[in-house]
Amino acid sequence: MWYVYVILTEKDKLYTGISTDPERRFVEHLCDTKKGAKYFRSDSPVKIVHLEEWDTMSEALIREAEIKKWPTSKKRTTFSKGYVHDEL
């Protein structure tokens, strides 16, 4: 399984990515400057606000690209009603 995830940051921005293990990836973004995305060096991740499951990496990459093209207003509207991950 591949997952598309959206993370809310401390500066109230939304970051979109893919992973086979989104919880592990969130921790990498949060704690590990070598494995985490450079994006989070200036804006720390707060929580995963959206998560989608896909069968293949290709499908996940296509969906990630689709979401990244959306305007911020559409992302905020869509993800404010969806999955919120509060465990981390």
Description of the molecule:
The model is unreliable at 84-88 (pLDDT under 50). The chain has a single domain (2-79), classed as GIY-YIG endonuclease (3-Layer(aba) Sandwich). The protein contains 3 helices and 3 strands, in the order ββαβαα. The chain is of the alpha+beta class. Strand 1 (2-9) and strand 2 (14-19) form a beta hairpin.
Topology:
Elements: E1 2-9, E2 14-19, H1 22-31, E3 45-54, H2 57-69, H3 72-79
Antiparallel strand pairs: 1-2, 1-3
Instruction: Spell out the helices and strands N to C.
Output: EEHEHH
Strand content: 25-35%
Give the fraction of residues assigned to helices.
25-40%
Count, helices: 3
> Please, what is the CATH homologous superfamily?
GIY-YIG endonuclease
Question: Which features would summarize this protein structure in a list?
Answer:
alpha+beta; GIY-YIG endonuclease; 3-stranded antiparallel β-sheet
Q: How would you summarize what this structure contains?
A:
Helix content is 35%, strand content 27%.
